[in-house]
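Weekly puzzle thread! Below is a chain. First person to post its structure in token form gets bragging rights.
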Amino acid sequence: MAEAYIVEAVRTPGGKRNGQFAEWHPADMAAEVLDALIDRTGIDATAVEDVILGCVTQVGEQAFAFARNAVLASKLPQSVPAVTIDRQCGSSQQAVQFAAQAIMSGTMDVVVAAGAESMTRVPMFSNMSFHAREGVGVGVGPVSGRIRARYGVEEFSQFAGAEMIAKKYGFDRETLNRFALESHRRAAAAIAAGAFDAEMVPLETGGILRSTDEGVRADATLEGIGSVKLLQEGGVISAANASQICDGASAALIVSERALKQHGLTPIARIVNMTVTAGDPVIMLEEPIPATRKALARAGMRIEDIDLYEVNEAFAPIPLAWLQAIGGDPAKLNVNGGAIALGHPLGASGTKLMATLIHALRARGKRYGLQTMCEGGGIANVTILEAL
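Winning reply:
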């Protein structure tokens, strides 16, 4: 089978809600990472055959062919098509997998996978308004009565799923808070060491070029994290041990071996395995565990063969449960911090984590990386990469 190679992977810094990137239109933010791929690789922009862009909240400024608007705001010629996809938090990781499938099938040679989300300008859940339809009545939202009857729930909640996982795996609030503190410590250390420099696309705001993730708290303490109000009475999840609302964009250039030779490109990674699975939509966020097992089996690998893992920190119980169930090494997990410190810009997080994983592998002289993401509806993506 043909191989799919990653030539470059980049991301913007994360911006807090109403923070450093609040004035950036999301299409323009996405355009910046598209431009960075062209500038850094030197590829002829007309060679790009498609842009696949992940975005979760496709409404308002992220509506009306959002990916196409990102292309029109960029240096790419108007002849480059684009499509917006939604696999919830795994949207841009799925964009990578769709792009790689196009490459491996031989139907395309140069594809951009990307993601963008302005959670400031297009708030989470703002695409879930319900409207009355004349002669029909009032809509009930995306979860139909048939689905409610099947699962015995009124709504599916990621917050409830995180609480279920914490209870199932025996994690108390202090354990989650300690994990959150470590996320901030690792992220702060990574920033201080310049670990993100190779992947970063700075954005200008107010005449200042912003190149640092805004949500990282180098001065975080266990006491401070523990003082944050719980999301539900009697629970263990708080905003401090969950991912931060975030504005950001990210992208990767994925090409065939033929394109490497034709355009004189040097790959930084090879895609080894792409897996997506689905399970229980109620507990929902546990699916990275069976997805990882399937991916490793299909790749003929063991977890011991993987040098670094990126497991999205949507909520602290998710990576902790993954470690426990898979038997992973905590020292290999989210080595530069995760979404608790760096933010989780929904549709942008897939290629964001991939950029961080690839550059972390290369900086350490390591070979194999595994990335996985819990997603709404009980879905999970896993991608295994080889750094080159």
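Puzzle host: Confirmed. Bonus trivia for everyone else. The longest helix spans residues 173-193.
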